[in-house]
Amino acid sequence: MAQFAKFHSKQVKEDLFCPREDDCQASADDDFLYWYQHGRWHEQQGNLEESLTCFKQAIEAKPLDYWAWYHRASIEDELGKFEQAVESYRQATIVDPQNYWSWYHLGYLLAEELELLDEAINCFEKSSALRPEDYWVNYRIGDCWRYLKKFAKAIEYYQKASQLRPQDYWSYYRIGDCHRNLGNYRKAIESYQKSTKYSSDCFYPYYKQGDCYRYLADFVSASKAYKMAIDLDPEDEYAWYNLGCTLAKIGQTEEASKALNRATTINPLLSQPIT
Q1: Three-state secondary-structure class, residue 135
Q2: What is the mean pLDDT of residues 163-183?
Q3: Which tens digits make up the pLDDT trace of 99-110?
Q4: Which end of the chain is more exposed for a tag (fewer CB within 10 A), N or C?
């Protein structure tokens, strides 16, 4: 899973936690606590397979414990056992359907690892019902609709996310992407410009502004945007290539030639016609 989801999950309530293996021995008379606390200890130590084994034993002792299912799913996710993690998160939602985290992480795995987007949206919507003011769940629903190429629907959720976190770069950037895919180039430019207000050192909003200006035949503005993108990533061959093309359109043939030469130096394949 991406770094975001792992970081985000640190906010989960920690219910039972055993920092030292010696402490775990005191719980040996209670099968569930013994295995659960051993699982948490191994999890902290990075012994993921051992941790997973312990959580499975804890669940055998107490099948309806939410946190045992949740931690089992988390470990399976870390180990790349995504289908098993999905099933464990599903069990967690059955045990406690009012817990935001299992719905959220279930949705994330369904979307990002298994590409089951309709199911993911359903899980995220259940998360949103529990925490309607959460930025990330609205952002993730937007992602799912964007992957499904339902760009107007995606914009709706990205806008909700931007209202919840007005200074976040990503929601404005994705709104720009959606408008660009819909052919709303001026709206896309406006959104990309908002994103650069909050993260001025990102290459793609400038590059994509250049594309949008080029689609609008505003080659002067396009060349300026491509130059700003190149300032941030001087080795991007496509920015150099598109800059050369736009400079040629406004009659700056010498500068256009330099830009195109730079593009083909970085990537000789660009000397071939681009369709």
Answers
A1: helix
A2: 97
A3: 999 999 999 999
A4: C
CA separation for the pair 175, 139 (Å, rounded): 10
Cα–Cα dist 80/111, whole Å: 15
At 271 the three-state DSSP class reads helix
Is residue 232 within 8 A of residue 200, CB to CB? The reply is no
* Helical axes 48-61 vs 66-78, angle rounded to 10°: 150
In tens, the pLDDT along 100-159 reads 999 999 999 999 999 999 999 999 999 999 999 999 999 999 999 999 999 999 999 999
* Residue 112: both structure tokens together: 């990002």
Report the alpha-carbon distance of residue 1 to residue 270 in Å, rounded.
35
Sign of the torsion formed by the C-alpha atoms of 1, 196, 154 and 93: positive
pLDDT computed for residue 272 by the predictor = 53
Highest CATH level, class, for 201-275 = mainly alpha
**What sections of 79-183 are H helices per DSSP?**
82-95, 100-112, 117-130, 135-147, 151-164, 169-182
How many residues are there in the chain?
275
Say yes or no: do domains 1-131 and 201-275 share a fold. Answer: yes
CATH of the domain spanning 1-131: 1.25.40.10
Q: CB-based contacts of 2: which residues, under 8 Å, 6+ apart?
A: 112
Dist CA 177 CA 131 (whole Å)? 26
Name the phi and psi angles at 5, rounded to 5.
Answer: -65, -35
Query: For residue 4, is pLDDT > 80?
Result: no
* pLDDT tens, position by position, 17-58: 444 444 455 444 489 999 999 999 999 999 999 999 999 999
Q: Is the Cβ–Cβ distance between 101 and 12 less than 8 Å?
A: yes
